[in-house]
Structure formats: C-alpha cells, structure tokens
Design a protein that fits this description.
There is one protein chain. This protein is mainly β and about 475 residues long. It has 2 domains: about 210 residues, Jelly Rolls (Sandwich), CATH 2.60.120.200; about 210 residues, Sandwich (Jelly Rolls), CATH 2.60.120. It is about 5% helix and about 40% strand. It is built from 3 helices and 32 strands. Strands 1, 3, 4, 6, 11, 12, 13 and 15 form an 8-stranded antiparallel sheet that branches. Strands 16, 20, 21, 23, 28, 29, 30 and 32 form an 8-stranded antiparallel sheet that branches. It has a 7-stranded antiparallel sheet with strand order 2-5-14-7-8-9-10, with no helix packed on it. A hairpin with a 4-residue loop joins strand 11 and strand 12. The protein is elongated and about 80 Å long.
Length: about 475
Amino acid sequence: MARTALVVALLSATVTATPSASAAGRLTPRPPAGAPSAAVAETQPVAAWRLDDRNGSQRAAAWAGSIRGLPGPGVRFGDQGPDGGMPGAAYFDGGDYSYLNTDRIVVDSTRAFTAGVWVLPEEAGRDMTAINQSGISSTPNFSLGITTDAAGHSAWSFTLPSADGETRVTGGTPQAGEWAYLAGVYDPATGTARLYADGVPVATEEAAVPEDTALWNFVMGRDGNDYAKKRWQGDLADVRMWDSVIDPVELAELGRRKPWLRAYWPMEHTELSDNGLTVIPEVEHRADFLPGGDAHIATDAPLAGAGSVSLDGDGDYLDSGIAPVNTGRSWAVSTKVRLHGTPDRDMAVLSQYGWQADAFTLRYRAADRTWQAVLAHADEPDATTTRIGAPAQDGTQTLLLQYDERAGNVQLWIDGTLAASAPYAAADAWEAARYLQAGRDSAADGVGAHYLDGDIDEVHAWAGVLSQGEINSL
C-alpha cells in the first residue's frame, strides 16, 4: 500500500487542498524533510493563485480566497512549475503588458502578514518585482522580488514602507534560469521584517509600517506604483498571501522543491512494443526497459507485487532506451534488490551512462560485501570519482541513491536509513544523456560489464531529491 500511495502522490498532476470544518484554518499535514514522524500543517492563505491555468486563459483562478487575477497580453500560462507536485506556472515577458492585476487589497500590510511565491527569473541583473501590493504614494505596501546595487550585484528583496521612506530587506543570490521560493514576513509584534529564500531565512531588519499607510491593489509581475519599472521577466508560480506570521518550519517545507517522478518500473509483466519488441513497461511508457540476455519476469518469490526481474549474471540486463533524469541536476534513483547467494565479484545494480563514463553506478562490491555508489566527475574514461558505501545484508534490500545539487552532496539510503553521504559539487556533476541500465554498468566505454546475479524490482527515477518521509514510503 505504501508503494501505491507514493506513486499516486508523485504522479498526480495537482492536488487541491480543502480545509475541513475542524481544521481551524489549517490544511492537510504533510511530512517535512528529515522528520517523517512529524507533520507540518499548511496554514490557509487569505488569497492564493497557483498560476497553473491553461495556456490562453483570460483569468488566473484563485485556489484560496475569491480574487481572480486579470493577466496582461505579456503573460503566458502553461509553463512547467518548479517540481513534480506543482504542474504549472505563468511566464511574464517583461514588456509593457507583463503583469497580472487584481482589483482589491489582499492583506492589511500595517498588520502581520506573510507573502510567498515561487520565482524563476530569466535574468538576474536588474530590479524586478515578482509580487507587490500597491500604495497610493510612490512606495508599495510591500514588494517581493530582485534588487541590484550600484555595482550590478543582485539580491532577493522584501520592501515595506517606513516613517521616513522604506525598509528594504535583502539577501541571497538570484540565479537566472533557476527556481527559488521567496517569502517575506512582517511581524509587528517583534518589529521585524524577514526575508526567506528556498525556505531558509536570509535577512532580517527592524521594521514598522506606519498605521496611516494607504492600501491599494495586489499586483504580480510589475511595480504597482510605477508600471514602467521593475517588470518581472521569467516565471511565477504558487502565489500565497497570509494575514499572519507563518512559522519558519512551514516556510521551510513550502520552499522545498518536491521530487518529480520521471519514471517507475513495477516489474510486473512484459508487453510488446509498437515495433514488436518485448519490453518491461514503465507505468507511463516514457522509458520502457528492453531486456537483454535471459532477463525475465519471475513470479515466484517476487520482491514486491506480482513479479520481479531475474538476472543470472551472465549477460542479463535491462536498458531504458532514454535517460530518465538529468544527472547534472538534482536526481534520485531507487530499487529493491536481492542477490543470489554471496557473490564473489563486483556487480552493478543501476547505472546511467554517457559517451565515455557512467554518471553514477550503484553496485555491489564483493571485497567487503558493501553496496557502493560511484559518481564520475566528467564524461571521461579516467575521470575522478566520488565513492560512498555501506554494508550489504542478506535478503531483499531497498537502495536509494540521490544527488542534491543545492546541498552539494550525494546520499546512499538503505532500507529507509541514511547509510552514507559525501560532498559532490555541482561543478563535478554532468548530464549523462544516454540510458539507464539495470543489472550492469557500461565499463566506461558503452560495453556492458559487471552483470548482476540477482533479482530487481520497483525501480524509480526522480528529478529532485526525496525527504526522509518520502524515502520511508518506498
């Protein structure tokens, strides 16, 4: 049941959360990273827009509150959201009509509030406004976006009016073409304004919004007071506004990019492909496995479900035909595996290869009976590698290997427990654009080697990294 629940959750296009009468303004809890036994309850926003409307839509539908957004001609719906749990985004072209207006006030910015939005700037070298609430004077009620200094250095920015002008909280470094989650929090009880990037607090300043601040309309994509300036160029998604101070733990979970399940092979049966080949299907037929050698589905003593793939170690393997994940960015792969006996040679479980090297190999190392992950630093035969490993046990084990680009590390999880990790810099990661293999590696030149003598089941491949709670659901 846990397997089915995870697949449904990660393959679903979108989930609309509806609070129950007893929820007291809280949404359905979900486990945060690193704390599977705890839950973070999402606070109901007073207004929110997913911006996942169909391309050509004349309105941005509200999923919380009742305020619809009116897009200008420079806004295009239908872009891909930041992760697999967020299917859509709106693109703002940065021109004269690059905006999304509403016709009313969303929050009273003289009191406690929180603003949050996923942003993907197409460029990062100029001032740009992602979301703001206009003021009648020259200073918005608040503004969240990018600011640049005199030297052209950019930073995330959260701006509020003050008695003598404005309070500007800046921090972090925007990256063109990279998604980030921005949140600004105004807390009059402590007299502070806080800025978060990707769920992490990056700056705090003293702040006091004047009580006589004139409130005006909420706007996305440009400065609501000066339409000609600070226009957003890039994507926005999942805009949320709260009339309260949101807990940092909740912001951390909102700012975590959820993994996107790119491929899943349950290993239950074979099918005939359009060209008449026997394949082991991926659930959405995005990357069916082509069996090699004597690889076949075995229904006696399967590792999970009704069947598993049995490999005899003598030229048996599976080949996906395409690369399911970009190994140059954050990714994760997992499988259940059971060895036949106690092997006396090294054997590969999963690998994804380029033209001259495997970006990663997840393997069994006979010398010390360990599971080992090997990650090459370049698509070269003699490339430097990062290696991590942990003891192998008898019977069926669930292995998960993941690379976290932001954290700059690689992790090996065994049976839901973090077994090993090591630094692996973004500069060392590269995209292996060929195939995912199960049961062998490429021996650095595309020639199969290290064939597995064992059974494989439940192979998953994700873009992004999993939390401990998600890993425990496998």
